[in-house]
Amino acid sequence: MSSSVIHLRGLTRTFSLSSGPVHAVRGIDLTVGRGEILGFLGPNGAGKTTTLRMLTTLLPPSGGAAEIAGHDLLRDPAGVRRRIGYVAQSGGLDPACSVREELVTQGRLHLMSKAAAAGRADELAGELGLSGLMERPTAALSGGQRRRVEIALGLVNRPEVLFLDEPTTGLDPGSRAELWDLVRRVRAEHGTTVFLTTHYLDEADALADRIVVVDAGRIVAEGTPAELKRRYAGDPDASLQDAFLAITGRTTADEPLAI
Amino acid sequence: MTLLAHTGIIFGRCLRSTLRSKTNLLFGMLQPLLFLALFGPLLTQLDMGVSGTSWQTLVPGVLVQLALLGGSYVGLGLLMDRNLGVLDRMRATPVSPLALLLGRTLRDVVQLVAQSVLLVLLGLVFGLRAPLLGVLIGLLFVAVLAAALSALSYGLAMNVRTPPEFAAIANTAAMPLMLLSGLLLPMTLAPGWLEGVSRAVPFRYTVDAVRQVFLGHYVTTTVAVGAAVTSALAVLCLVGGARLFRRR
User: Fold this and answer.
1) Which residues of A touch B17 (CB under 8 A)?
2) Which of A58, A101, A111 sits opposite B92 (nearest CB)?
3) Residue A94 in contact with partner chain B when CB distance is under 8 A
4) A4-93+146-248 falls under which CATH superfamily?
5) Best residue in B7, B21, B89 to probe A by mutation, most A CBs within 10 Å?
């Protein structure tokens, strides 16, 4: 078993718009170790979500190569899908569906038998504190509860890699802390690799073993939170915010790239 | 697992969702039902230049109308799922991408055929008389047509951004096609030029065939042409729908 679970070489994505080509991702080389929590940081429009959509097989890359959980992204996307979990920014819950319906269906989508999917739903509900909410329509959940259900959906197949796209955007401080604990627990108990995008620097600081900063579709810095602070802000006690601003060289983000 | 099993998983999910929203089921049926109840009685005394009763002409038309309108609007539901991220969540699982389309289409076919059965039963109350075999063959035509339009509607929904955009396109396409296929009144009443134009609309052949089988005529050129045109349309729409569905 290899110690790296994500391996990207020269990954690019160009969108052809009527106004001309937009180079959203301009060549990403990255290796992520098994069991690592990687924070993928960048200002709005840096290419974070585009990269994530490529890694989760939702968007074909324009160029480069990628291997995820032992499967080639281009040649065997179905193999990749079997071994990953993906929680999008928008979450992907059907408001009319009950939590149980969502969890069981997700198991079925991962090609489990009906009995196995039902069993896995109960198991996850127990682990994530959802047991009392199973019959509730997802529209009637609080923001924090919704996020937990969405993460449970991403964990149904016991993925090797869990991709989280801005997992705590819009959550209150208590729910954020709870979610960080959950992510740490998933890694500790199952050895799951977690690839998360965020633009909250405290989140990256608290959660990530390693941070990759992207800007304008390229990796511009990489290291542990402490290394980045020392290297870019000149002081290990500086805030990650200072390091981030030193790296991306601007105080306010550019206009987001609307794709 | 096969494509069929994957389609079954998506079909089950969609069918449960349909059964949960009973208002939708009812409102989808309301319009054809009103045509039957409030428009049908106007025709009973008219000479429409066709054999059989006016109900044997109108009920097949209303059935095809249900498939045409019901089928072409299903994309709205997909558009909602897309915007909520439900579709992407499913696309990132190992379930076959084609099954995501076919499972939904199968649900639509089942729903529209169930609604058609109710319409035929209501027609019986009003005075429709047709052989059982004819009705069954008619429902088969409706099912194939519904599959075609549903797949095409999903293909469209994958390639527009907002519900208003979708509704504008679907509306603009469905309305003239509906008028030109002689669904409510047979094209035997039309002047030559209109009759000629209607020959370019595939649904015209479907409804003519359904009217024939409702009269108990099964082995006629009209039925054969209707079957050929409807099947060809279904193949074209399913292939096209699948291509459009995959594009994103």
Assistant:
1) 94, 96-97
2) A58
3) yes
4) P-loop containing nucleotide triphosphate hydrolases (3.40.50.300)
5) B89
Interface of B with A (CB under 8 A): 1, 6, 9, 12-13, 16-17, 20-21, 81, 83-95
Across the interface, do B92 and A93 touch by the CB < 8 Å criterion? no
All structural domains of chain A with their residue ranges: 4-93+146-248
- Give chain B as a 3 state SS string: CCHHHHHHHHHHHHHHHHHHCHHHHHHHHHHHHHHHHHHHHHHCCCCCCCCCCHHHHHHHHHHHHHHHHHHHCCHHHHHHHHHHCHHHHHHCCCCCHHHHHHHHHHHHHHHHHHHHHHHHHHHHHHCCCCCHHHHHHHHHHHHHHHHHHHHHHHHHHCCCCCHHHHHHHHHHHHHHHHHHCCCCCCHHHCCHHHHHHHCCCHHHHHHHHHHHHHCCCCCCHHHHHHHHHHHHHHHHHHHHHHHHHHCC
Q: How many other C-beta atoms are found inside a 10 Å radius of the C-beta of residue B28?
A: 19
A88 and B1: CB-CB below 8 Å? no
Q: CA-to-CA distance for B18 and B108, rounded, in angstroms?
A: 9
Chain B residues in contact with A159 (beta carbon < 8 A): none
Q: What is the pLDDT along chain A (259 residues), one digit of tens a residue?
A: 458 999 999 999 999 988 999 999 999 999 999 999 999 998 888 899 999 999 999 999 999 999 999 999 999 999 999 999 999 988 899 999 999 999 999 999 999 999 999 999 999 999 999 999 999 999 999 999 999 999 999 999 999 999 999 998 888 999 999 999 999 999 999 999 999 998 888 888 889 999 999 999 999 999 998 888 888 877 777 777 777 777 877 654 455 554 4
Beta carbons of B236 and B145 less than 8 angstroms apart: no
